[in-house]
Design goal:
The complex is a heterodimer. By secondary structure, chain A is mainly alpha-helical. Chain A contains 19 helices and 6 strands. In chain A, β5 and β6 form a beta hairpin. By secondary structure, chain B is mainly α. Classes of the chains: A mainly alpha, B mainly alpha. Chain B: Keywords: Membrane, NADP, Plastoquinone, Quinone, Transmembrane, Transmembrane helix, Transport. Chain B: Belongs to the complex I subunit 4L family.
């Protein structure tokens, strides 16, 4: 475990070196210009070696792979030696392979996201956000969870505030960032308060999900000044001193996680951020934190939400037998999310806000999975959702967009249907009928605006398709297909968004983005084969 | 060892601070500087809670947590103030609707 931590520290040291080298390049050389330029900007050379920021970019975009080289060399390891040097605790979780898979998922997504950023400061901030999310996956104690959560928040906030449109700063994005910042500050403050309460009452701050099948908060060790052999820390004895899970502290801690995920009723930042931020950042925020949070949740608190389906035993499927807090705490968020996500999206003139509400809807369904269907189906649907998001924020083509919309709506031949189908099936099987009915209803309601989008893009005469809004007659819907998303929602009633439906480009996009779009589309179309395989074979 | 009543009083101040911060943020939503101050209050209250718990339990974890919370709160404040500064630079002073910092200063 100690060797593992040394490797992680090594990776972090490489990041520091990267930052130093980039600063050196900025001070002494050009950024991305060719070597033959005017005499105002010379390149610095040591014995005919010239430094350029291109090299830093090249390494930075591949940097996340350092975190999974261990798997390439050693293979998948069965002990989840905690990757967080902050914790000094080793755990053996049942979901080790899943954590390893999530690692690789985060790395791949970060490499895709990093290709879209052209400035070094954005790249470094994204790498820091990646590191924080990676450690959140592997974190075991409340302290490391808090630190990584805040780190992710800060990196994202700074990136949102830094962005410019057409080389000018944008007050709309800064305003949205301010609101998100304040909300996140208070949510983490509340989280901390309840951490301190738990710590005061019990003296323990480590969540230990052991192979013995109980989630315990185990006693801290090694921090009382005495010498502790690293091999004996944590995993040797699982002392269950705090197994009472029917408490409000878990609910209130979960509400902080819900804030970051974007579940209602703490969903207000999602709409603001989705309308104000550029698409490459949205690719990050809609994929990586959700993986990290769900991963942390499964590794630490999964036994709280244990149902018959997740263990494979389908004999006793009555949910009331299980923990009360788990059912009634998450169900509130589920119901709020799915109703708000489906009904608020109806007469919106802004497509970004529509996608924000569809995100809230999807998160509601995923939360339903936690208490009814188990984590395997949760991650199935989550991966389908992530593929959809990667396609959504990259697509310039209305044909890709139609397939995506059909998948998001949950219509049969594509992957979105099978993700939702499994979750609804298990919801019915475990007896959570209220949630099932609500989710089916809202899925039907949300079909309308997905299909309306398709009609909007393919019909040249869009006057009869859009809803009529009483407060403005100058509505023109903007598709994420065009390069500009400027809204003026706060201060005027004229919602200025421009449409380019008839001029949608077909293949005028960069090659790598086209490959990404094609890959996502292929996955959405052919993934169902792998999802339905266990039912048929 | 102190009496139970005295021990409870030690933890009361930080709890009062925490709830004051939350309620202040809810009431003073229109003033961004007060919001930042309430954030700081909340962080400090949690900090003191951890220290109180560490003293009560005679455990080091609370102290370490306290140090980390302090650093993170400082970073948070820095980011918040930087955002405020950029926001104020972009907007004209007459166009401030939700941020009444200038009005409060004049009174």
């Amino acid at each position: 475990m100690l060797m593992h931590n040394i490797i992680i520290l090594d990776n972090l040291a490489s990041l520091i070196l990267l930052i130093v080298y980039s600063l050196f390049c900025i001070r002494y050389s050009l950024n991305n210009k060719p070597l033959k330029t005017s005499t105002n900007n010379p390149t610095y050379s040591f014995n005919k070696i010239s430094i350029n920021l291109r090299d830093v970019f090249m390494f930075a975009q591949i940097y996340p792979i350092l975190f999974i080289t261990g798997y390439i060399v050693e293979g998948f390891i069965y002990t989840n030696a905690s990757g967080s040097f902050i914790d000094m605790v080793c755990t053996i979780t049942p979901n080790v392979l899943l954590t390893n898979a999530l690692d690789i998922g985060i790395v791949i997504i970060m490499i895709i996201v990093l290709r879209n950023f052209q400035t070094i400061e954005s790249t470094i901030l994204l790498l820091l956000a990646f590191i924080n999310s990676y450690y959140m996956l592997h974190s075991v104690s409340l302290m490391s969870f808090y630190i990584t959560l805040e780190g992710m928040n800060f990196c994202f906030i700074v990136l949102c505030g830094l962005q410019t449109i057409n080389k000018g700063s944008n007050s709309f994005s800064v305003e949205s960032t301010l609101k998100y910042f304040l909300l996140s500050a208070f949510s983490t403050g509340v989280l901390l308060y309840w951490f301190s309460y738990i710590y005061l009452q019990t003296g323990i701050s480590v969540i230990h999900s052991s192979i013995y099948g109980i989630t315990t908060l185990s006693i801290n060790s090694g921090l009382d000044g005495g010498y502790m052999d690293p091999s004996h820390i944590g995993g040797s004895t699982a002392i269950s001193t705090f197994t009472n899970t029917n408490t409000m502290e878990y609910f209130l801690i979960i509400s902080a996680i819900m804030f970051k995920l974007g579940a209602a009723p703490v969903h207000l930042w999602v709409v603001q951020i989705y309308t104000a931020v550029k698409r490459s950042l949205l690719m990050y925020i809609s994929t990586v934190p959700k993986i990290a949070l769900f991963g942390f949740w499964t590794n630490s608190l999964h036994q709280l939400f244990n149902t018959g389906c997740s263990t494979g035993n389908t004999d006793s499927l009555n949910v009331e037998q299980f923990n009360v807090v788990s059912l009634y705490s998450v169900a509130i968020f589920v119901l709020f999310s799915i109703f708000i996500g489906s009904i608020s999206a109806y007469n919106l003139p802004s497509l970004r806000a529509l996608f924000a509400y569809s995100t809230i809807n999807e998160i509601g369904i995923l939360l339903m999975a936690i208490e009814t269907a188990g984590f395997h189906s949760l991650y199935t649907h989550l991966s389908i959702y992530i593929i959809s998001m990667l396609l959504l924020w990259n697509t310039y083509d209305k044909r890709f967009f139609t397939i995506l919309a059909i998948s998001l709506a949950g219509l049969p031949p594509l992957a979105g249907f099978f993700g939702k189908f499994v979750l609804f099936w298990y919801a019915g099987l475990t007896g959570a009928y209220t949630l099932l009915y609500a989710s089916l209803l809202t899925t039907g309601i949300s079909l309308v605006y997905y299909l309306r989008l398709i009609r909007l893009f393919w019909n040249k005469n869009h006057k009869n398709i859009l809803p009529y809004n009483s407060f403005s007659s100058y509505i023109k819907v903007h598709a994420s297909i065009a390069n500009r998303a400027y809204t003026n929602l706060g201060y005027t009633n004229n919602i200025i968004q421009y449409v380019n439906i008839n001029k949608t480009p077909y293949f005028t996009i960069p090659t790598q983005r086209f490959y990404l779009n094609s890959l996502c589309m292929v996955l959405i179309v052919y993934l169902p084969l792998f999802v339905i395989k266990p039912f048929i074979l | 060892m102190l009496q139970l009543s005295r021990r409870l009083l030690l933890g009361a101040s930080s709890n009062i601070m925490f709830w004051s911060g939350l309620v202040g943020a809810a009431v003073f939503r229109r003033n961004i500087i007060v919001m930042l101050l309430c954030t700081e209050l909340v962080m400090l209250a949690c900090n003191l809670n951890f220290l109180y718990a560490a003293a009560y339990l005679n455990d080091m974890t609370g102290v370490i947590m306290s140090i980390t919370i302090t650093t993170i709160a400082a970073c948070e404040t820095a980011i918040g103030l930087a955002l405020c500064v950029t926001y104020f630079h972009m907007r004209s002073s007459s166009d401030v609707e939700a941020l009444n910092f200038l009005k409060a200063a004049k009174e």
